[in-house]
Amino acid sequence: MSKSVKKVVLAYSGGLDTSIILKWLQTTYSCEVVTFTADLGQGEELEPARQKALLLGIKPENIFIEDLREEFVRDYVFPMFRANAQYEGVYLLGTSIARPLIAKKQIEIAEKTGADAVCHGATGKGNDQVRFELGYYALKPDVTIIAPWREWDLRSREALIKFAEEHQIPIAKDKRGEAPFSVDANLLHCSSEGKVLEDPAVEVPDYVYSRTVNPEDAPDTPTVVTIDFEKGDAVAIDGVKMSPATLLAKLNELGRINGIGRLDLVENRFVGMKSRGMYETPGGTILLPAHRAIESITLDRGAAHLKDEIMPRYAELIYNGFWFSPEREMLQALIDKSQEAVTGSVRLKLYKGGVHVIGRESPYSLYSQDLVTFEEGAVAYDHRDAAGFIKLNALRLRTLGSRRRKLGV
Amino acid sequence: MSKSVKKVVLAYSGGLDTSIILKWLQTTYSCEVVTFTADLGQGEELEPARQKALLLGIKPENIFIEDLREEFVRDYVFPMFRANAQYEGVYLLGTSIARPLIAKKQIEIAEKTGADAVCHGATGKGNDQVRFELGYYALKPDVTIIAPWREWDLRSREALIKFAEEHQIPIAKDKRGEAPFSVDANLLHCSSEGKVLEDPAVEVPDYVYSRTVNPEDAPDTPTVVTIDFEKGDAVAIDGVKMSPATLLAKLNELGRINGIGRLDLVENRFVGMKSRGMYETPGGTILLPAHRAIESITLDRGAAHLKDEIMPRYAELIYNGFWFSPEREMLQALIDKSQEAVTGSVRLKLYKGGVHVIGRESPYSLYSQDLVTFEEGAVAYDHRDAAGFIKLNALRLRTLGSRRRKLGV
Amino acid sequence: MSKSVKKVVLAYSGGLDTSIILKWLQTTYSCEVVTFTADLGQGEELEPARQKALLLGIKPENIFIEDLREEFVRDYVFPMFRANAQYEGVYLLGTSIARPLIAKKQIEIAEKTGADAVCHGATGKGNDQVRFELGYYALKPDVTIIAPWREWDLRSREALIKFAEEHQIPIAKDKRGEAPFSVDANLLHCSSEGKVLEDPAVEVPDYVYSRTVNPEDAPDTPTVVTIDFEKGDAVAIDGVKMSPATLLAKLNELGRINGIGRLDLVENRFVGMKSRGMYETPGGTILLPAHRAIESITLDRGAAHLKDEIMPRYAELIYNGFWFSPEREMLQALIDKSQEAVTGSVRLKLYKGGVHVIGRESPYSLYSQDLVTFEEGAVAYDHRDAAGFIKLNALRLRTLGSRRRKLGV
Amino acid sequence: MSKSVKKVVLAYSGGLDTSIILKWLQTTYSCEVVTFTADLGQGEELEPARQKALLLGIKPENIFIEDLREEFVRDYVFPMFRANAQYEGVYLLGTSIARPLIAKKQIEIAEKTGADAVCHGATGKGNDQVRFELGYYALKPDVTIIAPWREWDLRSREALIKFAEEHQIPIAKDKRGEAPFSVDANLLHCSSEGKVLEDPAVEVPDYVYSRTVNPEDAPDTPTVVTIDFEKGDAVAIDGVKMSPATLLAKLNELGRINGIGRLDLVENRFVGMKSRGMYETPGGTILLPAHRAIESITLDRGAAHLKDEIMPRYAELIYNGFWFSPEREMLQALIDKSQEAVTGSVRLKLYKGGVHVIGRESPYSLYSQDLVTFEEGAVAYDHRDAAGFIKLNALRLRTLGSRRRKLGV
């Protein structure tokens, strides 16, 4: 806390916690505070945040509010889905992918307002602090970073509430006690962790879910939906063209009513421990198999397998907060290069938590019925070629086999 | 066909096609035929195959029938599931994993009976010919391989039927016409492809499915099931210890009634073209997320991520038929090394096609509630460490950022 | 040989073997032959090839001769060196990288002349047939490929000579007997294999080398040379700007006199067997460590390690002949993305077979003396950060250690 | 420094710096100090360290001195060389591989003596602190670690000397001033860095080298040497069986006189910055190509390529200090699995800094002259197989080519 700071850009939600941080920054660092409030589709109105900031003494010109939904989906979510990214085999990286955008915007505002510092409200045990700060440092290497949860001595809920009361910060009734779990939300997903979710042997209580109905309560009739892709990105639903954010919101709605996208997971944090989280990613959970399905007919095997092999690394980079790193950008160049012909339509059946691909077609399809049918194709495929193919592939195995027979190794 | 062969071991199902092959071998190569019929859980009785072989003139001592179900699951399916293997992100390799075992048994019988050749009934356009033959060659490098579908001139259904009639091979009524699709089955899965499935834009007709009910017809109440693992392998269901094959059969039944494990896929064959298949893997589709879930609390991050990174390669090797290759064995050594503490229980909810992990516990759990809770853990975790962790991880990004600011690259 | 062919583009060197092929094509296929002779820096004059082609009855308008040296180095050799590609840890891919360019030119000429076929003179046991033909097929999927060495029955040197005599093909005296080894050469390298080189236990005889002096005969005084790079490619030697081919030729000369670039190797061919080859790559053997050295100060760790990890795959693709494949192009996109700031100078000492980097500098250097010196850097590095960095990196290992102490796994 | 410590095991060389640390531990922590001095082949006598420890007040029973040379080479160096490990393409990891063994021994002594802490003399900017501490934590998760260079305020050479004088620590004359570079040495290598080496554009002065003669001063006649391998490890030189450490020492001597193993490198440290080092690894620089050469005839292509692909990751793990991690052990299992038949002899020519493989043979050789010679092999290879092999490998490229021709993508 010995850092000297003149002006700091705070990622400000308008909620109690970031309001406490706001006030703590003013009192601890005696510095000017700039607030940044973004709409990433978390489902909260932004204007109350402006009012609250004003109330807490922020100058009007220091209040920045921005609707980032389209940029978020177009430049972050979609590029990531081109890679079919899943962390640890299942997690769609809903929280991870939002952090770099917020960091980037904070740095842009810092440059604009001449601020020398930035501040976030992430705790000292999670991944989000890493994601924010790697973004800050990459984009503004000399920035000062303030991470209140690692610095202050407000170590309990009581201490926080006491601080708020002492500084006339309004406290909503339901915020006095500890929340039974903590939540992060944006247009891609909603995550919950902590408290009631901490024992990984115990089922997630139903009240934790907010974005999806229970599959058991979903309609008894499946929803059939068609998604169109262009160069790897979804562009239309049931033939209706939509902007990226509109499209994802629509998929979220389809997922919500069909109970799609719940994930109960124990994951490995970058900071070294395991944690248990619950994720709801309704639209993303539809989008992933749809994207894989359009790739299945438009992407060559060599391209597809290379993508699959580098995917875990790519997902790990995003999870760990290295969006603004050369290696993520290099992998993105590789991925994007593959998507030129990933164009076409996929039909899916959504039913009580399940997403089932039932058809795919494309003007660029590499699937050739001629080649596959048992009647021998006119052009390219001759049964007898297979013998030579197998024999040369087997050659080294035969040499090994001969050695084993003769020498036992 | 110019090969000179004295005795050949035929993979013989007892069905019309392999009976035609049997007779064709006798007439074309004038050689002694040894039949091998295996129970891999495909769901057919084996004794009729013996009767048919006798009828077609095979000597009793040349008829081999074996129940391989336990060996199949214990030594092939389970090792593969330790790797969480999925080809092209989704396919559980049900056909691929059975081929090496059949090849191995044929070679063993060839050694025992002094046969110089082996024969399979796979077509010349698929992957199975490769899988069989790579296995044969690896285990008996000097073997002669006969692949009738690549050699004979029976190029239509009519020609086959005509050949059968000429050679007094009994023909079941429903085998006269062409089957609307072709099927492969074993204890892990049932696959269908060809004919009515060839257009990937058209939904799989319901009558193609044989192992699972339609999710829409599954019970309205979820089934909750517990699977126990020891060293990476499933050993008990709902607390009841079972042999590997018994356990997989039980999972198949649970999957069947809950509509679990249907997969409609366009995949990339090793022989170079895309094909569309329909897979039913009810038990495997339950087993995979269960195994991932027990790993999620017992496997370290470094181990888990390394496994995820090599998995696509491992799956590709199995798909392509390289089970008996040094590289598959090296990867298996790596995988098996990781499974020592993958022991514990996973609870799952099965519901209308969906498999949902709802709890996991293990005496070897690496999940530590102390470390995760927001109250600072007693021992290992200090919030302030995170600052140093982030700063050193950021150092190279800051250096890059400085360069970009100064020099624009 | 049942293929019907109207016009074929032959990769024609003007030597005895391809002259025999030329005549064999005319007699066997009764087709028009177009010859293509390229200068890739193999060190032979091209005009004699024209004379010989005319002599063998090729129409003047069907004789194509092209100097490809600049295109070869600029578009094939340099992109490959950006990746630091080495097959099996050591081989600089000198033969492999030339084949796609020749294939591409043959196809271009086929399109121009309306030819329906192409022909190469590679044998049926090597990799080159694969490299040529994968290139042909990728660029002109419906082309007919003629590979005489796999088709004809000229199975001995005597048979070839006899065929040549029967068809009035001039035979140089030293070509009557079998060559003691076979040679391939271009501006990047010269390779030798076969006959006297076949026993991998026996040292390569000195007379096999043609591009380099024996290190023992090289000057007793080292040569110091500076290579300048721009965006990953070498552009100048000792401050003198040069075109790609000129530069590589200059490096070859420097390598030659200093005995640099000899490699005696047993390698694994794509077609399944091991072979022993001798390679001389004087310029390339200087270029590789020079490129690594300029990367060492201009490339970030994340970028550098990612490049190192994908390199073996990239090298394998080129070796196997998949230059014109989506996966090679995707990897190239990744590699090229990393080279934007790979600009600067490297100083090397060349001495009796050795290449020793002795200095490197760059306007884009990421090497910061401030950060490294033991005096604590002003800005970014604080010793105390290391403690947190280590502790969080150790966290999972400590958790594992605790489990091992308690439970033994 | 607020840690409470009762007994600490110090990695003690007997030199001035670790003697200062010893005294600083006593005065700062008022704790009992146990010294551990190991012979890893650094080339210094150990008994003076005992005398100095006694002089500084260490109880005789708290002084541990051990000759670890054989264990070092057998259990650390050789397993690493099985992998052909090179960090960033060139560095043989000489420093990195010694740290885990020292850490392991310190922890063993801590257990034996009931110590609750360990201490090392590595600085706060390097990799060695990480390597020591990850080892400590992995093996004894609750250990307290003291890293004086990160903790004390002795920030200059003057301060250190003053502290030594105040505490009656004997100071050798040449230790009063700052060393022109710092050195680490063991049986595998000697590394130098800092001060005079800091500018990467400036050549390493000749006086920095201590283990090798300048190539220009090496004999004018090459040395030819044969190395025998068994299961991947070197076991004999010129037919004389030797223990691991004896063999490495012998290779070091051969390397020394022939000027082999100098490396001038800018590398990327795990802690985030680049550093320039000079390494001398005479024996290792001979061993690596020798091991690759014996692998070239005894290892199958699939095994060899898999090893090459995972090698950079394996090397990075060792460099970063993760020897005692599950992922390193998993990769080791994979590597060791491959070495069963890596047995045979390699002949090399050593000449003025160069190592040239000139022959290799093995009873387990997979190199088959029959397969390679142009005369068609009796058994396994048929030229015509190559056509089928190529056509099926080309199939997907032809499909892509057709699409590109028709549709432009």
UniProtKB/TrEMBL annotation, chains A, B, C, D:
The molecule here is called Argininosuccinate synthase
Annotated GO CC locations? cytoplasm
| Reaction(s) catalysed (UniProt annotation) | L-citrulline + L-aspartate + ATP = 2-(N(omega)-L-arginino)succinate + AMP + diphosphate + H(+)
Subcellular localization? Cytoplasm
Q: What is its EC number?
A: 6.3.4.5
Q: Name one GO biological process term.
A: urea cycle
Q: Which residues bind ATP?
A: 11-19, 38, 121
Give the Arginosuccinate synthase-like N-terminal domain ranges: 7-170
Pathway given for this chain reads: Amino-acid biosynthesis; L-arginine biosynthesis; L-arginine from L-ornithine and carbamoyl phosphate: step 2/3
Organism, scientific name: Labrys okinawensis
Query: So where does L-aspartate get bound?
Result: 123, 127-128
Q: What is its main location?
A: cytoplasm
What family does the entry list? Belongs to the argininosuccinate synthase family. Type 1 subfamily.
The residue ranges of the Arginosuccinate synthase C-terminal domain are 181-398
On assembly, the entry states:
Homotetramer.
Keyword Nucleotide-binding part of the UniProt annotation: yes
* Sample GO molecular function, one term: ATP binding
List of residues binding L-citrulline = 91, 96, 127, 131, 182, 191, 267, 279
Among Pfam families, the record links this protein to: Arginosuc_syn_C, Arginosuc_synth
Q: Which CDD domains match?
A: ASS (cd01999)
Q: Which UniProt keywords apply?
A: Amino-acid biosynthesis, Arginine biosynthesis, ATP-binding, Cytoplasm, Ligase, Nucleotide-binding
